[in-house]
Specification:
The protein is of the alpha/beta class. It is built from 12 helices and 13 strands. Helix content is 37%, strand content 15%. Strands 2-8-7-6-5-3-4 form a 7-stranded mixed β-sheet, with helices on both faces. Helix 3 runs parallel beside helix 9, helix 4 crosses helix 8 and helix 10 packs parallel to helix 12. It is globular, with a radius of gyration of 20 Å. The termini are far apart. The model has no long low-confidence stretch (mean pLDDT 95).
Length: 347
């Protein structure tokens, strides 16, 4: 049966999500999930009918939260589906290309490869900012430029002026896709206000992080209405299950938003606690983080990662040498993780 598959699929290396990597333990700080468990009312009186492709109540609720017109909003099965929709709508297989800037989220390249679209790399600078000169020299046949802010796994924000320069550079040539999966932790840094100014700007959002709804798989693409209409041509007929829409609307209600704000403040406080504690350890460098995770460099990151893993503290390896990405959990999880790392380094 394998011989029947496309050559690209047979030879590709899949994205290894936190769940696919597995692990066994009591502390799970490897997937940038929220530690909060919120309750929702599940309705079942409409499950005999197909869902609406783009439920008005959900679209309007997120548009209100984002501060934009509802015509600029599309909802999908997580922001990951938004990545795929953009590639399907704007890239001709074996002809067009995407460009992304590692170290960053791995699904941009995987999704492109899945559709036989080449993924060009222009690494971030030593300060983990956009290398605009190198990008400008690499735009041949590029239709989509993916950038992430706050960037995963580094945690830093991209310079707003650089994003605007990139948008100017790619005008009438390519779309710039700004992945704002973690922007809810630093909303002042969003570029959503640039949507009216730049028709080639696309923003990806999700309810997985700050809204504690990773298991819901509900994401959003914010873009010029012309782009939204093109994406609607390639999206699945019923991409948003009825219970997903109901829960998402509840999460975006006045009560839901107030709860999310409180939980975001709690996570930011835990991030500051963990950053301060780790930063006091000898040989440890904690990079500034603006999402619900921190990238931390250790003298021997691989040895420490294995020790943590073997003792039931499941963190995430990083492509950056000797670095480990630590999701921000509740205070107890952060305290136990810090204590174990301190003990290991003292040994």
């Amino acid at each position: 049966m394998e011989a029947l598959a496309r050559k690209t699929v047979r030879e590709m290396t899949p994205y290894m999500s936190a769940r696919r990597l597995g692990g066994s333990g009591d502390i799970w700080l490897n997937a940038n999930e929220s530690p909060f468990v919120n309750e929702y009312a599940i309705k079942s009186d409409r499950l005999n009918r197909y869902s609406t492709c783009q439920p008005d109540e959900l679209i309007n609720a997120y548009a209100s939260y984002a501060g934009i017109n509802s015509q600029y909003v599309l909802t999908s099965r997580g922001a990951d589906e938004g990545i795929e929709l953009l590639i399907r709508a704007f890239c001709e297989p074996n002809k067009d290309k995407i460009l992304y800037c590692p170290p960053t989220y791995g699904m941009y390249a995987i999704s492109a490869q899945t559709f036989d679209v080449e993924a060009k790399q222009v690494p971030l600078t030593a300060e983990w900012q956009l290398d605009l000169d190198a990008i400008g020299q690499s735009l041949d046949a590029v239709k989509l430029v993916f950038v992430c802010s706050p960037n995963n796994p580094t945690g830093n924000l991209l310079n707003r002026a650089d994003i605007e320069a990139l948008l100017d550079m790619t005008a009438n040539r390519a779309l710039v896709v700004v992945d704002e999966a973690y922007i809810d932790f630093c909303m002042d840094a969003s570029v959503v206000d640039l949507l009216d100014k730049y028709p080639n700007l696309v923003i990806l959002r999700t309810l997985s992080k700050a809204f504690a709804l990773a298991g819901l798989r509900c994401g959003f693409t914010l873009a010029n209405p012309v782009v939204i209409e093109l994406l609607l041509k390639v999206i699945a007929p019923y991409p948003v299950p009825v219970p997903v829409a109901d829960i998402a609307v509840e999460a975006l209600s006045e009560i839901g938003l107030a709860r999310a704000k409180t939980q975001i403040l709690d996570l930011c406080a835990n991030r500051a606690y963990l950053q301060a504690g780790l930063g006091m350890l000898p040989g440890v460098h904690v990079f500034d983080g603006y999402g619900n995770y921190l990238l931390v460099k250790f003298p021997d990151g691989e040895r420490l990662f294995k020790a943590l893993w073997d003792n039931g503290i499941i963190l995430r390896r990083s492509p950056v040498e000797n670095c480990i990405r630590i999701s921000i959990g509740n205070r107890d999880e952060c305290e136990k993780t810090l204590a174990f790392i301190r003990q290991q380094l003292e040994q």
